[in-house]
């Protein structure tokens, strides 16, 4: 059901994307902090939509479909905007690219495996990757608007690199597991 609380939380994550994007076109530190807070709120809904759905036994096909899409849209939009507005160094465009490419690869792989009726559960390491990534992005959204004693830009870019490294590892793990099913080999 579209109007269930878990689905509404997921949909809210998609609806906040244009608002976060709009903050890039506004001057001043308030816009950066607004983007950061909106991103954090969206990241929190990612936890609660699944938690509430499981707790209320209201897991739906729509929710299973939309949840990973909402996550990927949010992350991709923020990474692209940070890059487009030179809010990451040229050196840190590389981990952003790695993260985007892995998301596309895993999405395609999951779609193909779903046709084969094979599930691909999220690994513990992938959850760590997501946590670090969800720390990097709001930190980068604030960037130079952070208090002078807090090197937010440096922290955000370091976290982005760590997330990209974990992205490569988890992406390879998913690809290797998926290839076994594509080649007809048993797990």
Sum this structure up briefly.
By secondary structure, the chain is mostly helical.
Commentary on this structure:
With 187 residues, the protein is an all-alpha fold. The protein has one domain (5-182): Four Helix Bundle (Hemerythrin (Met), subunit A) (Up-down Bundle), CATH 1.20.120.1760. The protein has helices spanning 5-23, 29-55, 61-84, 93-115, 124-142, 152-182. The longest helix is centred in the C-terminal third of the chain and has 31 residues, at 152-182. The radius of gyration is 17 Å and the shape is globular. The two termini are 35 Å apart. The mean pLDDT is 89.
Provide key terms for this protein.
Four Helix Bundle (Hemerythrin (Met), subunit A), mainly alpha, 187 residues
């Amino acid at each position: 059901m579209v109007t269930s609380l878990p689905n509404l939380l997921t949909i809210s994550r998609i609806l906040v994307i244009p608002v976060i994007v709009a903050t890039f076109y506004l001057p001043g530190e308030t816009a950066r902090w607004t983007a950061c807070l909106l991103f954090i709120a969206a990241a929190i809904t990612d936890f609660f939509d699944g938690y509430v759905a499981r707790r209320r036994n209201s897991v739906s096909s729509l929710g299973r479909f939309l949840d990973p899409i909402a996550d990927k849209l949010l992350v991709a939009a923020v990474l692209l905007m940070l890059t487009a507005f030179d809010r990451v160094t040229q050196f840190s465009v590389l981990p952003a690219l790695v993260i985007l490419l892995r998301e596309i690869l895993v999405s395609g792989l999951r779609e193909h495996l779903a046709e084969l009726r094979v599930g691909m559960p999220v690994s513990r390491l992938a959850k760590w990757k997501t946590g670090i990534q969800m720390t990097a992005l709001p930190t980068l959204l604030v960037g130079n608007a952070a208090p002078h004693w807090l090197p937010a830009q440096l922290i955000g870019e370091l976290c982005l690199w760590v997330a990209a490294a974990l992205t490569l590892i988890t992406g390879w793990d998913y690809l290797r597991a998926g290839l076994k099913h594509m080649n007809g080999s048993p797990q």
